[in-house]
Write a structure and sequence with these properties.
Blueprint lengths: L2 H10 L4 H52 L4 H4 L29 H14 L7 H6 L4 H8 L3 H4 L2 H11 L4 H10 L8 H19 L5 H15 L3 H10 L4 H15 L11 H8 L17
Helix pairs in contact: 1-2, 2-6, 9-10, 12-13
Amino acid sequence: MSTAEFIALGERLGLQGAELKKWVDEQSERAQEEANKAREERVAEREATKQRLELEQKALELRLKIVQAGGSAESATRVREPEGTRPSVVNPHSLIPVFNENRDDLDAYLKRFELVANGQEWPKEKWATALSLCLDGEALKVFGRLSPEESLDYESAKKALLQRFRCTAEGYREKFRRSRPLDNETAKQYVTRLFSFFDRWVEMAEQGKTFDAVRDLMVAEQLLNNCHSRLSLFLRERNCKTVDQIAEAADHFMEAQRQNNLLVFREKEESRQKNHGEPGKAPAKCFVCGKAG
């Protein structure tokens, strides 16, 4: 509140002259003290948060070094937190086993981790650290290559892991198309799994979930599946986001390659000449044996 506002308030309270001035000075001084105190508290809180994150990062790096040196992920969890840090919310191994890339599906594992984290009401800022304690092998190496900021952000860590284990839009598309019912799997469970693959496919494709967005996704898949393998590979490498971008890139490729059929590529004339010799010219013969070649 400004001095003018204090004066106006004091006058409404019936204060005048020296009494009003004294009251305004007291209120202004008190307001300034409160503002200074609030500012100091914010600075102290930011500094404490910075120190805590730095200490947690050091603890995480120490755990990663232990595992990379040959220790297990379980033994790494016994590393003592640096003095001054808050203790971990919970030991995740009491609720979640270590991720095994040869046995576990990463997508399902992360879903289970998130269910446990939400059920246990872990603070979101602790999720990345808790997840790191559940990783081993290649997954832990992926986590170890993250920047300090990314290693403390769950969504960044999750994205890096999904990309490494090919839980991408293309990977989920293949899972959705090729998935078959498992032994002892009910129809409802199978449908739920298909929904999961499809939703992940749409989510990772960053197309949105509107009718038009899903239609574009389906048409793009149909185009990629029904063109020549060379063209399909070229388009997938470009990572085009919309079906219009895919179609435009395909037309540019066809024009550059002088092709006129998306599915059947004709061999270039110079390539045929290289493989079969120039037209009208007899193949060379050996002077010794008389055979061609």
